[in-house]
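dumping these here so i dont lose them again. two proteins, back to back, each one seq then structure tokens. dont judge the mess
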Amino acid sequence: MKGICSMPIVTVLLTSYNHGDYIRGSIESILNQTFKDFELYIIDDCSSDNSWDIIQEYKDDRIIAIRHEKNEGGCTTRALYSGFKGKYFAMAHCDDMWELDKLEKQVNYLESHPEAGACFTNVQLIDDDGNNFDQENHPYSHVFLNENMTRFEWLNHFFYHGNRLCHPSSLIRMDVQMKDDLFAAGLGALPDYYRWVKLCLKHEIYVHPDKLTKFRIHADESNTSGQTPVNQIRVHNEFYQIAKLYETIQNKDEFLQVFPEANEYVVDGRINVDYALAQIMLNKTNNKGFHFYAMNKLMELVRNEKTKDELIELYGFTKRDVCNISGRLDLFHVIADDEYLTTSLFYANEEGFSEEHKLSKTITMMNNHFKVTFELENKEVKQLRFDPTEGKYISLKNISVLIDNQKYDLPEVIRYHEMDGDWIDIYSLDPSLLIDLKKTTLVNKVVVEADIKYIENSKLLNYENKVEELRRKSIDNLSIKQLLSVIKNRGKR
């Protein structure tokens, strides 16, 4: 199916894979835009359902439909883009939809604001049936609702909070897309995050305040991919690539606009930005990909004769300090995993959980038991969410929660789980416990204690089947619906 649009203002790329139930709504929300001057590429990645049959039903001259003969896992290659004719580029997903005036409002903005490299929109969540999805505490409920910031503020925000922009809401200048190489070849977990960081290194962006993009939340959470072991490993590796983007900010004034906190590394008006970035990554994040980058960067700096002397002069930092850091950072899990836990406590009142209301601690597990204390300093709290660890499959028993020396009821496990005798097997890489105080209370100290072990490999071999089994059993259960209000943000595949 080949369209005849000659020189369209916008090129829209709609990616399709096994969403035959939704793709018709997606296509029609594009074709019915009030802004008509566009070409629509529909790339079907060898769907095994009826998606391609539905695509072929549409005879609009603006459509260029392509079907991969085998699943290629994506279609955002430079070679494909070379055939695009639009001045602007928009990405769409086959299970999402647009408001009919999305392109019109975005094109109007970019036409009148040449300094902006891209225009995004705020987002309306929808459910499987296309109805508005308004669960206030769902991880996506606020993540795609953004106030406008400078590109420097966006870079800082991305650094600490990850991606906060919805890809199918974007309209990007095609020359920016191509000249700045906004491609993420080889990235499978964080490609959008990588693109937006790279975009903001050179260009301002704008988020239209209207909810012009409809982003679908599936009841089975099939649009979240962060829980699989493969993806967890991939995320850490890809954060290293994102760290390398930040090292390109070498101008002192720009660096301090991105990282105002780096002023502590300014000495007599001088700063080594590579050193400052490495120290921020080490001391202000828990990101292993960032830590790996920072460790390598510090080693590189002390090996260079010029920068070695500069670090000694400015910071009294020597190769011995690097050795001390390298002995402290267990990046390759030399110490057995069962000896360390990275625990987190989220506290919420009426607004729900957020990264801003999070306390984290790394503790040692002794004899399959842990005890961790969090100081909240009299925060107003209605609910607590305790994450015993990150990136590990665990079983718990004998869970005890003390809040200001008062014992609370057994917390609710808010991930897919089942009982194995007295043990609670949690089939999630983000195990979480919900502690409901019933009413807003001033809290000073929280102590959580439990017996813990790791789920046996024999069980994990059946991981995917187990999760699917638990999902089927629980999908209509109220407790599973409640978990939607407390799980962390996950990227959309």
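---- next one ----
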Amino acid sequence: MKHYRIIIGIWFLCFFILSPLRLLSQYSVYDKEITQDEAISLLDNLYNSMQRYHPNIYEYTSKKDFDKIFNDYLSDLKLNKYYKPDDLCNIFTSFISYTKDSHSSIGMYKRYIKTKNPTVSQTDSLVNVFPFAFNIIDGKMYVAYNFFTDSIITEKSEIVYINEQETSQWIMGKRMTICSELDSHKDAKISRHSQYKLLSNRVNRFGFVPYNENDTLYAEFDCGVHVLDYDKYLSEAYGENDEIVSFTPLNNGKIALVKIQYFYTLETMLPIVNNIIDSISNYDSENLIIDLRESPGGHAEVIGEFIKQITDKPFKIYSEEHFYVKKSMKKSPNEYMRKPWINRDYINRKDVKKLWKDDRDSVFVKISDVIYPDKHTDKFNGNIWVMVGPYTHSAAVEFAATIQDNNIGIIVGEESSAVNCYGNPMDYEFSSDVLNNKYIRYDYFAPHIKLIRPSGELTDAPHGIIPDIEIKANTTLKNDEQLNTLIEIINQTNR
């Protein structure tokens, strides 16, 4: 198995540590290479940590297969005497991807030291990315937004080669560095995050097939777009702003569009949500569209408070909450409860102590409570539409599941990332007793809860929220085809 060598040949930095601002500042990292022996010990520590802390790493990959994969990775690590820390991060992420758990990850932290005369000549080629935004649809890459008006690569063109490599191979390599239950979610992350689109060559060549044509053409770009500019271009392409929740009146206010970029803490979100609900009331909107297509999740605690303001129906956010505590974690209940990731809404100190009664892996199952909205508060009483897509993840998926399973509104768009997934990850360092280089640290993030959707549906194969009305993905970012289609559906419904 040569998984990581493919990945390394494509790109060099992983998303946990990419920081162009630091590369270009007066700070540089002490980037000492890691020896083969250290790399092997790190992988061994990582696998042990996965077995100790993850609720079930063998849910989708059997122990027999996982052990074989581990031995294959060990063999591959013996091929080189030294490894760059960034390369190892990719290898470790590739390894844990076999869990198919979107809440598992590798964190790598570099300690930066001040330098008098920083140079970026050795790194400037690593901070350049594609000169266009793209969407991956059914395993194929299509240009969604071109950053250069004079480029011969037009929107909706299919990119078929990247530096003489077939796009399908490029996508497969990127997928190997992302932990997720579904390939569609991986592809969505690749499409949106610049760290997955770094260019390694000074001059880069793209082979593409123009929209509605058959011949392959080629275009060359000198270093592409600098990553610092790329984020600006991409924000413009996706229409993103600094608002975590935004409100836009459509059709003279008859349709209220609410976009949720991220689910922040209840303290942050609730005042914003209250203001938006007031705005919707002022416009006397008949339809509410909640757009979660670009929301990677966040804090689930705000879900109930939001939904209570748009419905008078009793509802559940989950049917069951499974709280896992592995045997190896049962050193101190009090210490465990002090973890900042422990949500007291899921489990309290009394519940935790129950899990310490025996010396085994344990799970605490809590039947979720029904939430009853306040009958004395004005509610939105129109039609509710929730837009989802493959990038919709975590708390955003839980929000959509709550809407769908409690018959509060209609889900439209494309299948989201996985529902009934694990969540609330904790970090565990696995490098402290291995690395002589104390400027580098590796953490393994493992989830500790599993939330079952309100319907109680359990399936062997992971899947996301299936829309009630499917609307295919946008092929261009300048025109939100999905939103326009939904508006047409709403207008037809109201006739």
